[in-house]
Amino acid sequence: MRKIILGLLTLLIFSCNRLKIDLPKKISINSNWQFKGIDTLDWKTATVPGNIFTDLLSHQIIEDPFIKTNEEKVQWVSKKDWEYKTTFTLTDEILSKKNIELHFDGLDTYAKIFVNGSLQLTTDNAFRSYSIPVKKLLKKENELRIIFKNSEEVGKNKANKNPYQLPEGNRIYTRKAQFQTGWDWGPKLNTSGIWKDVSLKAHNQVIIENLFIQKTKITDRVAKLNCTLNLKYNYVHGYSFEIFINNELVKIYKDHPHYSPLSIPFEIKKPKLWWTHNLGEPYLYNIKIIVKKENAILDSISTKYGIRDVKLINKKDSIGESFGFELNGKPIYIKGANYIPQNSFQNKVSNQHYEKLLSDVVVTNMNMLRVWGGGIYENDIFYDLCDEKGILVWQDFMFACAMYPGDKNFLENIKVEAEQQVKRLRNHASIALWCGNNENAEGWKRWGWQFSRTEKEKQEIWNDYLAVFDSILPKTVADFSETDYWETSPKYGRGNPKYKTEGDAHDWWIWHDSYPFEHLENNVPRFMSEFGFQSYPSFEVINYINQKDSIDLKTDAIKAHQKHARGFQLIDEYIGRDYKIPTHDEDYVYVSQLLQAKGIIMGIEAQRRAKPYNMGTLYWQLNDCWPAISWSSIDYFGNWKALQYKAKKAFENILISSKIKNNIVQTFIVNDTFEKLNGTLQFKIINFYGEELWSDSKEIEVLENSSQQFHEFSLAKVDRKNSVLITTFNNKKSIFYFDKPKELNLPKGELKQEITKTKNGFSITLKSDTLQKDVFLYTSTKGHFYDNFFDVLPNETKVVEFKTTAKKIDTLKIKTLLVK
Ligand code: BMA
């Protein structure tokens, strides 16, 4: 009985405590919005988060700029000023709270904010969040109105005040996504509007503003960590802080009084480390901190947290200066791509888009993405998913291909921007590096930007550069995070021979300077942070651009979706070097993708073979922001180009890679794992009809985390145009040709196909008596082929899964490379 009474009493005390909970309230102000032009249109419904283009589009006031040549027709939109308004009702409970703040996660860009008719704030940075204390202004019924001045005009006015012109155009004066003013893969669609959430935060007591978890020491036995809390008030009294790890209370911190920031040490026994997905498990802990006063919960903050130590290794050595990453004390080889915004209109990017793209990254064996500096600091979900999926992120600050101003306001503005962004991202396990900018220093030193300027002017511009990239940004990263900082990517432009021996490199000898792909074999830098080649996108994207149902590459629409001045010419020139130039448009698209894949894989393999001289490769570019002919390996609709399929193989942890040097075929095994491998390396040369012409084998031991050459033979007696080398090691296989595709005498055998229905789509079985090179499967049924652009060897069976929700597969079509 006593026990029951005690139990009831505890329950009563517990529920009394619960009653006292006084958590801050967050109210979304994303609904009810309307918009109009300052001097055009009447009020119309608007979507928040959103932007002026998508609002106009949903009212059919403009045509879709992503199709045909419509981009040109909508340019007037960014020359106008726009106005947004909403109303919201508040309860007495909210109005009675001691503090109420209006919070904007992102405004694009020059906004004047009126709360109940009174001007409260003007903003000038789309990358910053803003808060306004509004307690005194609020009533039951409220109106919020925002006027956006167009950034083109503001930029022009700012430029006019500068005594000299800065490269490249007026975009540099406005802190917003730089690619929106047009890029060599993207349209000019310069948005304005409320591009992120709007909310009200109401609270009575102290609130936690942010959290920073730092590592003090990590051993197998224990991870000693420290959590720093920034509280809304500098001084608080009588509070206690409880730390929960995976829902278990591990620490109660009670000392008082407390000053903000408040630092609380805590420990995790036998810590499980976070690894990239290709090297281990990306394990994340759930950490939660609760603030209480007299047993009432006042606020709480939680985060997922991966225990890991990631470092940039950048040391002088006998060659020059290394560049690579260490994870948990081990050097790891970086494989991945450069990432750009997934849409010109950020509000069109759904959580499913993030999930799909980042799953593709994992499936393709990439362990790093570089978030490129001309885009945006990504949404939280991007970094959450990278943490979960074990992908590292090289994060650029948002500055690209230009010189930026250095006046007091600009510097103050980016200082706040940098501090907010670094604080927002610092607890993410995925964040491996902050980089100051993309190609600004290279541009200044190599692209003629200094031409006809006075010494004084040059000095001033360079000093402004240093103020941002050598002072404010590195200091912010050091003060507010544990992440390493790199001033600019690349360290040296390709005009400086040091680009191969020091730091990271962008090798645009390929493409921009028309060098042959073979250049990549002999010119390997310490870390390749950009190199790339364009191709046409899927038939689906091409037909969408043209709004037609058959492929036509000669339309004005297609021209309008190629943003590189010499793009078509370069693709054609390079195709001619390696392939017979196709005369049919569909074949041309297919071969352009094979070409892109061939060139980039040649580079990836050369860079991986050169490990540890080279410790990473990120090609340009993973994705598209609109339907385009571009460097991407995944197109706007998420379809994989040939490069994505071939990169998947070239990025596997264990790679068999052969090359020809002085008429000798050399075969390497690259091993990115931390384990030694033993097995038989087997070689055979067959002709295209399956006849074996030569074979060899060798027992080998492959060291952990290494690249070694294991075999070589002379090409002297090899029939280069009529045979192929097949190498196997354990369950890996490589197919290596001795000549360019256009030189091969590929036979025109029949490729038999059989399609069966499976749980998740269809299974396609392929077989042929003769070699079938670069088999491309396609259908108008929406779905994904797990493999594509592969070779079917004579008399071997290849099975490919096609994932789709469709009950029926429309005609399965096949292209193969035929030269004769
Ligand atoms: C790199 C990038 C981008 C550009 C790409 C292709 O230099 O940093 O600025 O889009 O090349 O030209």
Describe the structure.
This protein is α+β, with helices and mostly antiparallel strands. Helix 6 runs parallel beside helix 7. The longest helix has 26 residues, at 455-480. The radius of gyration is 29 Å and the shape is globular. The chain binds beta-D-mannopyranose. The site of beta-D-mannopyranose (BMA) has 11 residues, from loops.
Please give a quick description of this structure.
It is built from 16 helices and 46 strands. The chain is of the alpha+beta class.
- Average pLDDT reading: 96
Uncertain ranges:
1-19
Please state roughly what percent of the residues sit in beta strands, choosing from under 5%, 5-15%, 15-25%, 25-35%, 35-45% or over 45%.
25-35%
Biggest sheet architecture: 6 strands, antiparallel
What overall form do the CA principal axes indicate? globular
Label the structural class: alpha+beta
SS elements, strand count:
46
As a whole number of angstroms, the C-alpha radius of gyration is 29 Å
Strand order of the largest sheet: 3-2-4-9-6-7
Bound molecules: beta-D-mannopyranose
What percentage of residues falls in helices of 4 or more residues? 10-25%
> What's the tally of helices?
16
Q: Between the first and last Cα atoms, what is the distance in angstroms? A: 95 Å
